[in-house]
Each structure stands twice: as structure tokens, then as C-alpha cells.
Amino acid sequence: MAKPLMAKATAVWLVDNTTLSFKQIADFCGLHELEIQGIADGDVASGVKGFDPVANNQLTQAEIEKAEKDPLHKLQLKFNPAAVGEEKRRGPRYTPLSKRQDRPNAILWLVKFHPELVDSQIAKLVGTTKPTIQTIRERTHWNIANMQPIDPVALGLCKQSELDAAVQKAAAKRAKEGEALSDDERRKLLSTEQSLEASAEPRMPTAIEGLETFSLSGDPRDEDDEREQKYDADSFFNLPDSDDDEDEDDDRR
């Protein structure tokens, strides 16, 4: 169902100027019923000025009167030819002010861990511009020394499904172009579900690479025994035989 422009401001006007129920206003404006109650109590949208839907060609007075008489009637948005296709408008994603300072960190994460993503995909995911992405790629951003790569999903800048869809699109494009992918690049192109379901491949640590043919078939203790048998004290010191010693003692006597 199409929603009115400036939904919260429209809800403020309907609360102040009509006797519609909270549910009717909530359904029409695409808000929660508790939000409408908060507007009526003054706790929500206290500084928002009401937006007249009748004067702005979104509702008719007859439609409002009909809904006021029947609490079960749902307000119908007035057809506006100028608004056709408005929801399909393309452009950068809107990022709240509180999260805009995190966008460079998210861009750095995407550039580092998903280099296959093009600038247009990154701009659509986190709501930024191509010049900003280019400065981070070239590490010429004014704050590059203080930036840290942070997952945009963890920052709330995009959904995991949107990131997976962008990665899968990049994977399909790379496969179509016929480029060879390394194991690390292939792993990065997998979605979250595929990477979790994939079986872990045993990999040899780099510290012991080249020792695949090393074996411990021989016992080191056997080698020590052979050394002891081969070498004895007499061979090291060249001691005279015991018979010669006895002859020398007899001559002295």
C-alpha cells in the first residue's frame, strides 16, 4: 500500500484535526499505533509541524468524514499521477546523521575484504559517493590514519542479505569474465549461508610447510646406543695395554 508524503507530519495533522482512531491513522501513515498515541500525548514528534493531506492532494475531505463515521474503514490515499514511480527512484542510500561518521570505516572494510565490489555497489550499500570511495582505495582520505575497517552490517548501514546479494552479483560477474580466483578470493565471494555450510578444509600452517616428507621412523635412542658402541674411553685417550704395564713393574723390582 502506498504511503503519504511526510508520514509523521501527516499523522500529527490528523491527530489534531480529526476524530480518526489511532489505528486508522497508523494504517494510513505506515506507523505503529503506539507512535500515534505518543503523538496524541505529546511524547512523540513534539516539534513536528502538521502536514495537511487534504491541501496537499493526498486525501479528500469526504474520505476523512467517511472514516470518522466508520472506525473499521481504512483511509485510501488519493491517486496522484505525479507520484507514480516515486518509490522506484534510484540514488544513494539515506544514512542517519548519527551513523554518517561510521561510513568511512565501513567503506574501508568493504574495500579490504571485498575488493571485487565496484564503487557503485559500495555506494549503494552504505550510501556514499564514488569520490569518497576512491580516496579510501588510494589511501588519500584526510582521516585514513585513524580509520579502522568495520563491518557495515555491524554498524547498521546495510543488511546482511543486501551485502550477500552484492557479493553474489560480483561473483557471477567474475565467473562470466572467466578470471581465475584464488582460494581466499573464492571464499570471500561466498554468502554467509554458504560459508557456514561449507566443510572446513585442513590446511597446513605456514610455519611447518616443507616438512611433509619428514618422518620419525627411527628412534633417537637407537642412534645413541650405536654411538656408545662405536666409541669407548680407550679409543679417545689411547691408553696402553694392561700387559705392558705389568712388565714395566717387574723390571723395576
Report on this model:
Residues 175-190 have a biased composition (Basic and acidic residues). The protein is 49% helix and 0% strand. With 253 residues, the chain is mainly α. Helix 2 (22-29) crosses helix 3 (33-41) and helix 5 packs across helix 7 (130-137). The mean pLDDT is 76.
Name the structural class.
mainly alpha
Largest beta-sheet characterization:
none
Query: What radius of gyration results from the CA coordinates?
Result: 39 Å
pLDDT under 50 segments (min length 5)? none
State the share of residues found in helices, binned by percent.
Answer: 40-55%
First-residue to last-residue Cα separation: 131 Å
- The ordered H/E elements are HHHHHHHHHHHHHH
What is the count of DSSP helices, taking H or I runs of 4+ residues?
14
Strand portion: under 5%
User: How many structural domains are formed by the residues?
Assistant: 2
DSSP summary, beta strand count: 0
Mean pLDDT: 76
Shape: elongated
Tell me briefly what this model is:
The protein has 14 helices and no strands. With 253 residues, it is mainly α.
